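Methods, example record. To illustrate the input and output format used throughout this study, we show the complete record for Family 65 glycosyl hydrolase. The sequence lines were provided to the predictor; the line carrying structure tokens was produced by it.
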Amino acid sequence: MEDLDAALCRRFEACVADWDGTLVPDRAAGAEPLRQVVEGLCATGFDVVVITGTHVENVDGQLRARPPGPGRLLFCVNRGSEVFGCSEDGLVLISRRETTAAENAQLDRAAALTVERLAARGLEATIVAQRLNRRKVDIIPLAEWADPPKARIADLVAAVEARLASAGIKSVEEVVAVAHAAATEAGMVNARISSDAKYVEIGLTDKADAARWTFNDLWAHGIAAGDVLVAGDEFGELGGVPGSDSLILVPEAEGALAVTVGAEPFGAPPGVLALHGGPARMIEVLEDQLRRRREGQPPSPTRTPGWCVTVEGLEPEHERSRAAILTVGDGLIGTTGSLLLSHPAAASETRTAGFYDGEGAEEHLRPCPAWNQLDAALDSAARVSRALDLRTGVVAYDVAHNGATVSAVAFSSLAEPGTAVLWTQGDGELLTQRSGARESTVTSSQTGSVTVHVSDTRRDGAGDAVVERLAVYARGDGDAARARAALVSCRGINAVHRAHREAWATRWADADISLRGDDDLQRDIRFALFQLMGAVATTGEAALGARGLSGDGYNGHVFWDSDVFVVPFLAATCPAAARAMIEYRVRRLATALARARALGREGARFPWESASSGREITPTMVIGPRGERVVVRTGEMEEHIVADVAWAACRYADWSGDRSFESGPFVRLLVETARYWASRIESDADGSAHIRHVIGPDEYHDDVDDNAFTNVIARWNLRAAAMRAGAHCDNDEVRRWNALADRLVDGLDAQTLVYEQFTGFSGLTPFPLREKYGPGPIAADSLIGFDRVQTLQVVKQADTLMLHLMLPGEVHQGSLGPNLDRYLPITAHGSSLSPAVHAALLARMSRHAEALELLRFAAGIDLDEASNPAARGLHVATMGGVWLAMAEGFAGIQADGDGLLVRPRIPEAWESLTVNVVYRGVRVRVRIRGREVTVDTDRPMRVVIARD
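The corresponding predicted structure is encoded as:
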């Protein structure tokens, strides 16, 4: 179509269209050309939705389409009262608005009153149909206008207005007002009144209801409004009343491209593109969409506010950090969003989960060959734009290079982990890739090998060339990779993209946090959730390192962060991924048991840092910021990891209700960690119990006694195991655990309700941390010196306060406020984990200004380029902390036995906060607006809403 409007010269993912006058000229016309293009579009993954006032037999009987998919054909008929799906197996009813006898009586009464009131004014009107959920009143019941063609709409309007004028009625709008009044008198609430000039319809539903359902359904399949083409023929006014198709433009449709192919005698309204030409023109538009898809044109991701992270330009000094920000992952592989064309500052990196190499502290995630970069070199003067669509997990690239342009989309399939796609369109000379396949295998001394199979398919058109690259990663030799690549290739790249998009839609439906009132924070929160979801597998085991699969920071080693900050998010949104993380610990329980024995202890001693084997691989020495040698004792003394692992397992069990886990590996994990503490605790002559020579979360102070966090979480571990051990241990052992828990000191001052962080902390030298260095996170060990900071009352990160986050039931009631006042002013936030923890706790105390300051820092830590914070990978545990701050801090959602407790505390500046979670298989949506709380669930469950 040479004269196609520029707005249509792109690829859409769905079309929502009226029937009569838009897709067909009338109900007697043949629809074979339309059937062919609809079935063709559906075969490429495109959705077609028909919204009409007629019934399904009329539409289906005329179209006779039976698309095999993967795209869908939907009929929203009877003005929003019914939805049918249509496939090669025929029609399937998806939803129907059922009326009650009382509602039908109201409709009858409203229609009769309308005819009666119009007759009283001298206008004859008749009730011509009693259709599902609506009544139809003909205001020009004359033989010559019995079935007016769409082409005569202007003549119809003129005839209606003349007839109305003869009765002293000014316009159709006045007739609609009469119908509204009649509906109200008949007892109808929210009656839907519409008119197409000839008829006035009184109903319980209308096209707006159909449109709302449609756009919500498309969203649930990963299609945003910006990817939708809306078509009609009556958007403009008819007799002073908006055309019936205007009802399709509901708020949910914002961003969609609306076109009219109708005559529109009074003009198309603003925002609607006038094409004219009727159904023949509409078929041309659809055929153009089919052509684009068959020729391989890549998708055109929309930059929906709140769902997009953009990176503009080329800045070599920030490139590593920027690439990490644009990481796409599927749980099995993660790939940084490096520059599309090669450049000295850019090196795309792909990492495979659990694929470690090296020995001891040097064991690291081994990079694999990347898939998302082209061969051509990038000129330093090139214009570069990249955008990560968080909603669909796609990175879009646009490059202007030496007079040529190239665009691309890249994604790592969430539906088929280990499968990645680079889909490129641009100047044929710039795209040097030719069709063909290649394969490489990377071998590790620790974890076997990974084979990468990459195939390029090139299509050369009259202008641009298209290259479709498919990369498949598989463990072992090339057979598995080749077999999977063959299966995926047979389905086609459009099907792969659709499945990926729908997989992300499903994850977001269970995990989204919607915040109205702070656009930047909304984007940052979704960025955090997106990266968390893409970093963890949903099957097998998942070893999540401190920087996920986005960088080489900490060599990919697994710390407590994953158990304490990431598992809670996944347990509440994707239990299968949380189980995979717990499975990583369970499968290394034997190694933890062996280490405890080697230390002369009982039970299981989990490592502070681990990788493939589960052995302790924490370095014993590192070079400090001033070049000094710093002894590292965390592997030896940061023993709270033992209870952290047990706590994470308990968190998963409580939220998931996974009975097979609770009756099997969970109990053994609890028992063996409790046995470790029972052998680790020392008892004094006075009967008190102690844990000496440890490091708490505050790593500025090592080799301390009775760290409050360590002692209280160990106490919890003992009691939790005693309560759930059952037949796994005898009564004497359970009694011993409970006795030790009761005698274990915790440093609580009964007068002030402040927990002393460890024995002697209050005797350290006070230090004016904030007066000297101001607000914000600081590396106090670097600024002050590690040796000196150990002598000061300066805390690296939330330590004692972690108890209030993780174990609020284990601390003294009313102690949160005093401990915040004691420790927050002296906390340096030298760990990225710290700000989100404090934000969550400050939110619980309704100290919103302080909470928001720290929350914004945590949520935006990787997106702030000032110091290249993401150069070695993203702070995934901090992202988990952001979720904890939002879900548990501000929304106040907590597990409460067989249900949930919701105790919200949101700032006045926020218009609303909506949090989606899954609790024991029930999907829950909590919406907070001021003091109003609404909870929706897909099955009955107990929810308690509380206020302070």
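Annotations derived from this record:
The longest helix spans residues 101-120.
The chain has a mean pLDDT of 94.
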